[in-house]
Amino acid sequence: MKKTLKYSSIGLLSLLFVSLLSLRVFGLEPQDLRPGLWLSGELVTEQITDWSFTDDYSEIFVQTNTRYGIPHSVTAYCIDYEGRFYLFSSYYGGGTFPDDRAWNRNVIRDPRVRLKIGENLYDQQVSLVADDAIRAGVLDAWLAKYEGWSNPGLENFYVFHVQPRT
Q1: Domain boundaries, the chain
Q2: Under DSSP, is residue 25 helix (H, G, I), strand (E, B) or coil?
Q3: CA torsion through residues 90, 93, 94, 96, sign
């Protein structure tokens, strides 16, 4: 009995290890409302000073770090505004920031993120924009980029400034 339990445990751990390794190698990217795990692509190591190329993308992928070591990735809206790059988190119908979004909880705890834009990966960090004047300007630019947006209420939007990792 003990031998069977030992072999079952080893088999289960081996299966878990192979599964996680496969997901790490092949990635499991988010789709619409379904979050994912690791993002895959070509890592860009140069510091990005001009994010205007992101104007061609309505959504990008954001990979955050969970407490348990397996990445959590989602899609997010983005904008280049006055030479700076921003991400958005929207809480439709209200919600408690950051409690109602796993990726928000993750970046408040650990601001390091990996972004996927097109086929490229960018290791960055984010910070919540608390300045109302900056937030208002970014949201105005966001509404210009996403013209057809049916507004759930801008009071339910949170803005993150993307910066190089330090």
Answers
A1: 2-164
A2: helix
A3: negative
> 36: part of which helix (H) or strand (E)?
none
Q: Nearest Cα to 49, choosing from 11, 80, 5, 74?
A: 80
User: Taking a C-beta distance cutoff of 8 angstroms, is the pair 117, 57 a contact?
Assistant: yes
- At 46-78, the pLDDT tens digits run 999 999 999 999 899 999 999 998 999 999 999
In three-state secondary structure terms, 149 is: coil
CATH 2.30.110.10 fits 2-164, yes or no: yes
Q: Is 7 exposed, middle or buried (0-12, 13-18, 19+ CB in 10 A)?
A: exposed
Say if CB 88 and CB 76 are below 8 A apart. Answer: yes
Half-sphere exposure (CA, 13 Å, Cβ side) for 113? 31
